[in-house]
User: Fold these one by one.
Assistant:
Number 1:
Amino acid sequence: MLEISKEVTSETGEWVQKEALKSFNEKVYAFQEVAQEWLGKEISTDTHQAVLELFFEARSYGKIAEFYDEHYQTLVEAKKDTQIKQLCLDPSKLLAERMELGTGSILFSATFFPARLLYKITWRKNGYESIELPFAISDGTLTSFNAILYRYPL
C-alpha cells in the first residue's frame, strides 16, 4: 500500500489509471488463499472476525478484478488511509452477458437511475425489448431497502 500511496502526487490525494494494479491484485489473491486456509483452522481466536471481514473484502475486490478490462478504471485515494477502487464505467458488456444466460431479466440497482440511462446502456445498444407496465406508475410504490446481508461465514 505504501508503494501505491507514493504514486499519488495530486493535491487531492487521488490518482486514476486505466490499467489494473496487477502487482497489488496478485497480493490480494495470495492473501485470499492464506486467509481461507487459516480461517478453516483458527475458529476461536480473537482475530478471527477481523480476518474474516478482510477476507470478504479481498474476495470482493478479487472478483471485480477478474472482470477488469477497458471498461474499468482504478481510483486510488491516499489520504489518511489508502483506498483502492475498481470502477466499471460502462457495465453494458457485463449486463449483456448476464442477460444472454436466460430468457428474461429483471434488473435491480440503485445506480441505474434515471431509467433512460439503463435503457441506453443495455436495451438500445444490444437490441433488447421492454414492456409497458399495465398500470400507472403513480399507482405503484417505490421502496428502497439497504440492510441486506451479503456476506456468509465460512
Note: DSSP finds five helices and three strands in the chain.
Number 2:
Amino acid sequence: MLLLLNRLGAIPLSLAIALTVIGCTSSHSTESTPTPAPVPKISQRLEPTPAVEMIEMTIYQLDPFCESFVEKSIQVPQQNALQATIHNLIEQGTTADFAIAGYRLQPNRTDNSLTIDFRLSPQSQRLFVSLSTCERMALLGSLKETLTQSSRWNIEEVKFTDRGVPIGF
C-alpha cells in the first residue's frame, strides 16, 4: 500500500484520493445544465429553393356595374399557368355563402374546348342556380373571357358543369 506523507504522518493513498474526491463535491445537489443542441454542419443546412419562374397573364374581371370586362395583369408560375389563372379567378368569384371546393379540367383537343367541372363545398349555402346574372357573369364570364382571349392555350370555347351537369350560362 502506498502512503502519502503530510504533516500528520502517513495517510494511505486510497484515503487521500477519497478525501480529495469528496472534498471536490458539495453536499447540496446541483442541477445539471442541458446540453446545447449541436449546430448543423454547413452541408446539413437547408439549401435555398430555386426561384419559381413566373409569367404575366392577363385576366378579365367584370366591372362593378356588370357591364364589361376589365383587363388585369397577374403573375402566375409558368409551370402551371392555366391552373393558377383559373384558381385566381375562382377565388375572386367565391363569397361567404358560395364556395367552390374544387374543379376538374377536361380539355377537348378536337374542338379546342375546355370544360371546367366544379365541385361546390359542402358548406356552400348557395348553388350555381341561385347566383344572380351579375354573379354568374363575374365568375363564369371572367373565366370564359380570360381563357378564350389568351393565345397561350388556344381555347376557343369554355363549358361549365357542376359534377357533370351543365351549368346554364
Note: The two ends are 106 Å apart (CA to CA).
Number 3:
Amino acid sequence: MITLVELEMIPVRSGFAQFRIGLSRNFNVLMDLEKQLNFLLQLD
C-alpha cells in the first residue's frame, strides 16, 4: 500500500527537477533585476 507521503513525493521529485531548471534560467533575470533595483536606490 502506498502511503500519502509517497504519493506526495512523486510529483515533488519530478517537479523539483523542473524547478531547478527554471531557477537556473531565472537566476540571470533576477540578478539583472537586482542590479536595476540597486541603481534605482542609488538615485534617491
Note: The first helix runs from residue 4 to 43.
Number 4:
Amino acid sequence: MKFKSLKSERKSTTTGEKRNQSLARARTWELKNESEKQFRTNKSDCRGTHPISSQGREIIQACFSNHHNEIGYRIFMRVFEKRPDYQRFVHALGREKWLSSSTELRDYLNNVVSKVHDVTAIEEISRNYGEQHVPLKKYGFKPDFWVSIADAIAIECVILDMANHQPTETVMAWSQLTSLMFTSIRDGYYAALRSQRQLLKNCKNSEWRLTIDSTSSLNDSAPSTGEKFES
C-alpha cells in the first residue's frame, strides 16, 4: 500500500493553513512544559476544582466552534511527517484504518470539548479512548506516539482559533487539557493491556491444568503391569 498521496494531500492544503502556524509552533514548545507543571500543581493543590481556568475552557470551546471536520487528520498528518516510526505504524495499519482512527480522534476531541467543564467525564472518556488502542499494538503502535499527538493537538488548535485569542493563552489552555486527557488515556491503555495479559495467562494456566488432568486420568485408567500378567 502506498502512502505518497498523504504527503501530496498535505502539501496541497498548506497554503491556507499558515495563518499563525509559525507563531503557534514556537509558543507551543515554549509553554508546554510550563503549562504541564502548572497543571500538575493545580490538580494536586485544588481538590474538587477544575485544573483549567474558566477562561481557558471558554477558549477551548471557542476553538471548536469553528469548522474542524478534518482536525483528526491534520493532527495525525503532522505526526506522520515528523516520525519515521509512526510512518511504519501507518503503513502496517493501512490507509483505511488510519483514516478511520483520525475520525475517531476527532470524535474523541468533540466529546472532551463538550464535557470540558467536567473533569471526571474527561477522565472516563479518555480512559475508554486509551483502551481502544491495545489492538493496535500488533501493528507497531507505541504509547510514545501520544507525546507527539499532544503537541500536534496544541498547534492545530491554535491555528483553528484563527487569532481570536492570544496565542499564548490558547496554547496554555490546550496544553493543560491535553495533559489531563493523555494522563487518563495512558491509564486506560495500560490497564487494558494488563487485563489482556492476565487473561492470556489465565487461559494458558487453564490449558496446562486440563493437560495435566487429562494425562493423570489416562494414567489412572491404564491397567498396571501386574494386572496385565494376571489377565
Note: The domain at 53-207 is CATH 1.10.490.10 (Globin-like).
